[in-house]
Amino acid sequence: MSHHPFAVTVAMIVHAGERFLMVEEWQQGRIRYNQPAGHLEPGESILAGAQRELLEETGLDIKLNQGVAIYQFEAPDNGTHFVRFTFCVEVPAPLATHPQDPDGDIIRCHWLTLSEIEALGEQLRSPMILASFKDYLAGTRFELSTLKQQD
């Protein structure tokens, strides 16, 4: 068996009216756009990791209310296998964002329409971004209670 890197990531869809929250970030010397997202840390529950990444990348301390989907993806550039848990929360209107960003790679947050996000094209960090927005808009959901952590 070949041993490629393996990563568990969490991503959040934050939806306000016609707009979605996106993060503009430096990634390997280029500007990329992503949903608020990041890697799960050892010993961290999936949901706690999602809440932490949302707070770090946007400054928003809001409770996620549902899951959207779980995606598997192999990065074409380096063969890393990703399992990505995507969550969602709806807010009444776009909220002010204040990235805490301990890594220093976040430039700013944007509230964008789906067509504006689609127009970013190659600047989107992952094909799972548009896939998850489409699943979200189609009503795909799972309950947070399906995530179980064993001590």
Task: Briefly say what this structure is.
19% of the residues lie in helices and 36% in strands.
Topology:
Blueprint: E1 6-16, E2 19-27, E3 30-34, E4 37-39, H1 46-58, E5 66-74, E6 81-90, E7 106-113, H2 114-119, H3 128-137
Parallel strand pairs: 1-6
Antiparallel strand pairs: 1-2, 1-4, 2-3, 2-7, 5-6
Search tags:
7 strands, globular, 19% helix, single chain, alpha+beta, 7-stranded mixed beta sheet, 151 residues, 3 helices
Query: Helical region count?
Result: 3
Structural class: alpha+beta
Mean pLDDT: 93
* Low-pLDDT windows of residues: none
Shape: globular
Largest sheet: 7 strands, mixed
CA gyration radius, whole angstroms: 15 Å
Note the run of SSEs as H and E: EEEEHEEEHH
- The counted number of beta strands is 7
The residue fraction in helices comes out at 10-25%
Distance between the termini: 30 Å
What percentage of the residues does DSSP assign to strands (E)?
A: 35-45%
Note down, in words, how this protein is organized:
With 151 residues, the protein is of the alpha+beta class. It is built from three helices and seven strands. Strands 1, 2, 3, 4, 5, 6 and 7 form a seven-stranded mixed beta sheet that branches. A hairpin with a 2-residue loop joins strand 1 (6-16) and strand 2. The longest helix has 13 residues, at 46-58.
